[in-house]
Design brief:
Keywords: DNA-directed RNA polymerase, Transcription. This protein is mainly alpha-helical. It has one domain. It is 79% helix and 0% strand.
Length: 61
């Protein structure tokens, strides 16, 4: 194998790994929004407030 082909394959692999990672993060955030919005009577974006996470942390301690 020549060097250009090897570099091209690693770049392609890195690109797909990055796309998959970004997709997983996006799906995680959408899941947080929907799960919090459906399971509570609050607005969707309240899931990103620090009070919510402090309450969850205290609840599980």
């Amino acid at each position: 194998m020549n060097k250009e082909l090897l570099v091209s394959r690693f770049q392609n692999l890195f690109k797909w790994l990055l796309i998959c990672l970004l997709g997983m993060v996006l799906l995680f955030l959408i899941g947080l929004l929907l799960g919090y919005g459906i399971s509570s009577d609050h607005q969707l974006f309240n899931v990103f407030n620090q009070e919510v996470w402090s309450h969850l942390y205290a609840f599980f301690q």
